[in-house]
Structure formats: structure tokens, C-alpha cells
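User: I've been trying to design a sequence by hand for this structure and keep getting stuck. Would you show me what you'd pick, starting by listing the structure so we're on the same page?

Assistant: Good idea, let's start from the same input. This is the structure you sent:
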């Protein structure tokens, strides 16, 4: 099909999406990025066009929005908003995390849920896509406040989810503590101990490797990508943004495989540690972020390295960048700075961390660039494995789960090669992931009729 026709089709499609979803820039951004690759593919495959698969994928199955009331430690009444976006369940129960952050709104959750559908399809597991959360900010709250909030949130959410319906997990601001409180309340309300959430503690039917899975998975993907260029991780300088769950375990795996992690960040600034992370520093990082709930600045004080308040880490020269904080955290200028400094690979740990301008630049430069829906799929993949273990009522070993994770990441890489190989032999991982994910969901939707 000629490119003019394809771009007209894309324009018309996006206009409809924009008209239907005004004031939702992140959702539109996510749909646009997928549509650019998928619409030309649909044009060439009439069965998808006639069934209007992409239009149906861009319309959530349903969205639940609810009030969440709770009482803070001073006795004040507090009110937040809760959401669950159930996007598509053609492949399995809705599956995707919950985000607690003051920036949470419908646009952000719809973009995340839309991405999740394609990501979950890429894992090859029986998982539909969804996302949820709240504008509640866990920062600075006591454990009791977080517990009361989680209980109130679940008191509404429980009627919309279930192990065969919709299985939430963590995301920004929702980790082991929050999942524990949410699970406890679900169990109380239903009088049922079931696999309704993933990311559960290992002591109450969680899976080994789930905390590590997103970060490790990203690095397994990176290894596969480097191999296509006869490169290896050993000795490479790596810049990571964020210092939460995904960043921590991406950093650990890089360290284990001989790379040097020289930067980490949080929303206040970044640290630059030219000597790189080691086992002692990593242990400190886990304690600082997960137990103390402290700021990354303390790392610089502890180990005497540089701290740059209010800045992002992209100007630190590196071979590899792994953005692991949030959406649109790496823009076109950052992308140019990275490649000017010799960066050869960017692997997204976060969801949509690179702006469209940054993505365009990486594709133009033909560096190794993996979009989050491929490279951060390890987290939800091990969530899928947690669901399997819960259904079987048994627990696989660390080694077994890790091996399955590796194999899933290898298979995602294969899918990207299959659908993203360009005429000059290079690989467009964005196209590969978008079309690879689309085909799996689309075929399931075709088989199930117009529902
Ligand atoms: P965490 O809450 O554990 O950590 C988030 C990190 O990102 C923190 O360092 C936080 O800094 C920083 N951050 C969050 N929001 C902003 C912001 N607006 N500006 C700057 N920095 C910010 O979350 P996760 O590690 O779980 O999630 C990180 C990313 O990875 C998200 O995009 C998430 O959607 C994605 N992801 C997560 C998966 C998982 O399994 N957890 C799976 C796949 C993707 P601060 O503490 O200062 O807020
Ligand atoms: O964005 C993501 O894939 C996640 N936050 C993990 C979702 C999950 O269900 O494990």
C-alpha cells in the first residue's frame, strides 16, 4: 500500500480517537504510536480492517471510577479518586498494575491500559489488559494511613475484580506493602483466599522473582539486543533513571552481568557515581528506598559521589540508558545528548518514558531501542506465572521462574525480529512489538466474534 494512503488513514483514525477522547494527551500518544505501525499492516490484511479491530482496541471494555474516603492520622477526612480501566480481555482476564501517584488521571491510566494489552499479548501468556490506581500519594504517609487507604480502595474495587475476571498488581507507588493491604481486604470481603492480585509476598502465595522480574527482564532483553550487534554488556557504562522497583533490579542485573551502573535518580534529582554500583551500595539502595522510603540524595552523601538536584541523568555519558521512572521523562533533546555521547542502546523499563521525538530520533539513528511494551514485559510475565502457581496451588523455585522469565524475554525478542526486521537488516523494535502484540490480540478477537 502506498505511504500517502497509509498516512491519510492514520490521520483519519487519530482524528476520531482525539474527538472521542478530548483532553487525554497520554492516551492519544500511546494510540498514535501503535497506529503508525499497525494501520499499514491492517490495510494489508483485510480481515482486521473489516472487523475494525484497532478501533475496538482503543475503546475500553469498561472503566470504573469511584470515591475513596479514608481518615488520616490526625483524624481528618480525606477523599481520593479510584479507577480501574478494563481495556481488553480477548486473551485472558484483565491484567495490569495499580498506580498510586498524585498525577494519576484517566488519560494516564487509559494509556497504560492500552499499552498493557499489547505487552501482555507479547508475553505469550493468557492475559488480557487493564490498569488502575488513584491520585492518592503514599509519600509521607504512615503505614497505618496507607493501610486505611488501601482498605477503602479495595472496599469498592473488590466487586469488579477476581482471579478469573481482573487481576491487579503493583506499579508506581504500589509495592509489596500496598499489595499486602489490598489483598488482606479482598480476602476479608470475599471470605476467599485466591490469586486475585499478583506481586503478593512470598509468604502468602506470591512468586519468587516477581519483585525482580521487570528489571531483570529488561536486562535479558538488552542482552538479546546487544547480541544482534555482536556486543555484550560486560564493561558497558549504564545510566538508569528512577530508583524504585524497576530501576533497582535492572541495576542489580546489570551489575551481576559486569556492566557499570553510574547513575540513578528520583523525582528530586540524580546521583552520578563514576565507580559504579557494587554489592554494598546495592544493599544500601534497597534499604534506603524500600525500608527507609528515603531520597536518592542520601546515596550520594553515603558514598561521597555527585548529586544533581532538579536534573535528569541523561547528560551523563553512557553506552546504555534504561529509563525506569515515568512517562515522557526522556525528550528529543535528551535523546540527542545520549547519542552524541555515544549511547548505543536505550531499553525502556518504564512505560512510554521516551517522548515521540526521542523515539523518532533513536529510530533515525538506528541505535538499539526497545519500547516498554516489549522490554518491561517481564514484570507482568512473572505475574502471569504467579497466577499459574496460584491455580496449581504450588510454588516453583527461584531458578525455575527465572528460567521461564528468560525464555519469555527471548521469545519477545524473537517476535520483535519477526515483525520488525527492516530491508537494510536493522531491527525496528517499535514496529516489531506493535505488530507482534497486535496480531495475537486481533486473532483472538476475530475468533470470538463481535463482542
Ligand atoms: P516505583 O514507585 O517503585 O518507583 C518509581 C520511581 O520513579 C521512583 O524513583 C520515583 O521517584 C520515580 N518517579 C515516579 N514518578 C516520577 C515523576 N513524575 N517524575 C520523576 N520521577 C518519578 O515504581 P516502579 O519502579 O514500579 O515503576 C517505574 C516505571 O516502570 C513506571 O513507568 C511503571 O509503569 C513501569 N513498570 C513497572 C512495572 C512493575 O512491575 N513495577 C512493570 C512494568 C513497567 P520518587 O520516589 O521521587 O517519586
Ligand atoms: O506496567 C506493568 O506491566 C506493570 N505495572 C505490571 C503489571 C502486572 O500485572 O504485573
Amino acid at each position: 500500500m502506498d505511504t500517502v494512503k497509509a498516512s491519510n488513514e492514520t490521520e483519519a483514525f487519530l482524528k476520531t480517537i482525539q474527538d472521542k477522547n478530548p483532553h487525554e494527551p497520554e492516551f492519544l500518544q500511546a494510540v498514535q504510536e501503535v497506529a503508525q505501525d499497525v494501520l499499514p499492516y491492517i490495510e494489508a490484511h483485510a480481515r482486521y480492517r473489516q472487523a475494525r479491530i484497532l478501533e475496538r482496541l482503543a475503546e475500553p471494555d469498561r472503566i470504573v471510577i469511584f470515591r475513596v474516603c479514608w481518615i488520616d492520622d490526625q483524624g481528618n477526612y480525606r477523599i481520593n479518586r479510584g479507577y480501574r480501566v478494563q481495556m481488553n480481555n480477548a486473551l485472558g482476564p484483565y491484567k495490569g498494575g495499580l498506580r498510586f501517584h498524585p498525577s494519576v488521571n484517566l488519560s494516564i491510566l487509559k494509556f497504560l491500559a492500552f499499552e498493557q494489552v499489547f505487552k501482555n499479548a507479547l508475553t505469550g501468556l493468557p492475559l488480557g489488559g487493564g490498569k488502575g490506581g488513584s491520585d492518592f500519594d503514599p509519600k509521607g504517609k504512615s503505614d497505618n494511613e496507607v493501610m486505611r487507604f488501601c482498605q477503602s480502595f479495595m472496599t469498592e474495587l473488590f466487586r469488579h475484580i477476581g482471579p478469573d475476571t481482573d487481576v491487579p498488581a503493583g506499579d508506581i507507588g504500589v509495592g509489596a506493602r500496598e499489595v499486602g493491604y489490598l489483598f488482606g481486604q479482598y480476602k476479608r470481603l470475599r471470605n476467599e483466599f485466591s490469586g486475585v492480585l499478583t506481586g503478593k509476598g512470598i509468604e502468602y502465595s506470591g512468586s519468587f522473582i516477581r519483585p525482580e522480574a521487570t528489571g531483570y527482564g529488561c536486562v535479558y532483553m538488552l542482552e538479546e539486543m546487544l547480541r544482534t550487534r555482536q556486543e555484550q554488556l560486560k564493561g558497558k557504562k549504564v545510566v538508569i533513571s528512577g530508583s524504585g522497583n524497576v530501576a533497582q533490579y535492572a541495576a542489580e542485573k546489570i551489575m551481576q552481568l559486569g556492566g557499570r551502573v553510574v547513575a540513578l535518580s528520583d523525582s528530586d534529582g540524580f546521583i552520578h557515581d563514576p565507580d559504579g554500583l557494587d554489592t554494598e551500595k546495592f544493599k544500601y539502595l534497597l534499604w534506603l528506598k524500600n525500608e527507609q522510603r528515603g531520597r536518592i540524595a542520601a546515596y550520594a552523601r553515603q558514598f561521597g559521589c555527585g548529586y544533581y538536584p532538579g536534573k535528569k541523568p541523561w547528560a551523563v555519558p553512557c553506552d546504555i540508558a534504561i529509563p525506569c521512572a515515568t512517562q515522557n521523562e526522556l525528550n528529543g533533546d535528551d535523546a540527542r545528548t545520549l547519542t552524541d555521547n555515544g549511547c548505543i542502546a536505550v531499553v525502556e523499563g518504564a512505560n512510554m518514558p521516551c517522548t515521540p521525538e526521542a523515539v523518532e530520533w533513536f529510530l533515525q539513528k538506528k541505535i538499539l531501542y526497545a519500547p516498554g511494551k516489549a522490554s518491561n514485559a517481564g514484570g507482568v510475565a512473572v505475574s502471569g506465572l504467579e497466577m499459574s502457581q496460584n491455580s496449581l496451588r504450588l510454588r516453583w523455585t527461584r531458578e525455575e521462574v527465572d528460567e521461564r522469565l528468560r525464555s519469555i524475554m527471548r521469545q519477545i525478542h524473537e517476535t520483535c525480529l519477526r515483525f520488525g526486521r527492516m530491508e537494510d537488516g536493522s531491527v525496528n523494535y517499535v514496529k516489531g512489538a506493535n505488530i507482534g502484540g497486535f496480531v495475537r490480540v486481533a486473532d483472538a478477537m476475530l475468533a470470538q466474534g463481535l463482542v
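That's my pick for every position. To get oriented when you compare it with your attempt: Residues 95-97, 116, 119, 169, 171, 198, 351, 379-380, 383 surround (2Z)-2-iminopentanedioic acid (ligand 2) (CB under 6 Å). The longest strand covers residues 77-88.
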